[in-house]
Design brief:
88 residues, mainly alpha, single chain
Length: 88
């Protein structure tokens, strides 16, 4: 891609995660690549948050059951104390 612009191949991969309005604005130059990135990130965040929600609700009691390891809620703040990001 050229500086600050996504090529058509890249746009094809992400177009399902953005509105037609944003895609048109990007193509006409009234939306930036950053605008596109934000919309795609937001859409993927919502999709991830909703992923398998029915199974979570159906098995919610298992999160408090001792002796099982399949269902665990992880405390991100506590994990950050012991897990460090990969340094590149």
């Amino acid at each position: 891609s050229t500086a600050g612009k996504a090529d058509e191949k890249q746009l094809k991969k992400i177009e399902r995660y953005m509105s037609a309005k944003t895609m048109e604005q990007y193509r006409t130059g009234t939306a930036s690549l950053e605008d596109v990135k934000k919309e795609v990130a937001h859409t993927l965040f919502i999709k991830a948050a909703e992923y398998d929600r029915e199974q979570y609700n159906a098995n919610r009691s298992l999160f408090n059951a001792t002796g099982q390891n399949n269902y665990q809620i992880l405390d991100i703040a506590e994990l950050r104390k012991i897990v460090q990001p990969i340094q590149r």
